[in-house]
What we know:
Elements: H1 2-40, E1 53-57, H2 62-73, E2 78-80, E3 93-98, H3 100-110, E4 117-121, E5 131-137, E6 141-147, H4 149-152, H5 158-171, E7 179-183, E8 188-194, H6 195-209
Parallel strand pairs: 2-5
Antiparallel strand pairs: 1-3, 4-5, 6-8, 7-8
Amino acid sequence: MKKPLYVILWLTALAVTPAFGQDQVQTPMVRSSVSIQEKTSPVPTSAATLTKFDLDFPGGSPNELVAAIRKAMGRPLNAIVPSEHASQKLPPLKMKGVDVAQLFQALEAANRTNNAIFGFRTIGTVSDDSVWFFYFTGQPRTSNFYLLTPYLDRGLTVDDITTAIQTGWKMAGISPTPELSFHKETKLLIGVGDMNQLQTIDQVLHALSAPTPATKARPAPENTKP
């Protein structure tokens, strides 16, 4: 009568043991998964202190701006300017107590006009040793040629024509404006800039081509004798 009782107790022990063993195996697995998650979580990094400087840039090409910044900082500035954008004209910049990040952010914001955006950008955390690259997106620069002989023969001067064109750009808020150059030998006016901006030249010349109404001569005053 005692043997069946022993068998029942022995079978009960076998059934309970795997359950305790399973708990002992799962516990370290949970701990290891938590530790892995902690290692892969992003860690915030503080921005490096950038060199402050004053800048008085009269305007010019991207390479000229880089040279001016290097002189103002008193240290090297890593910058890349693609050859196809090396002739891009940048506006005058007069800054006080700025760093390169603030300067380039302001330059980009100031040039978000006329469907053109250009400036300097970098990748990664900004520091004095960051590598900046110049970019340009927008209307490509092109060259147009205009024969001014018909207008010069009518008594207009080159200065009359170019002043009217530049006034149109100024009133439209275009900055920087396209470049103008007059070739004396061929009487050609050469305009270099965005295609949309060069349309102002066509509009001015078209307006100057309109026939002017003939003016009637005023009769000479009669001489009255006292």
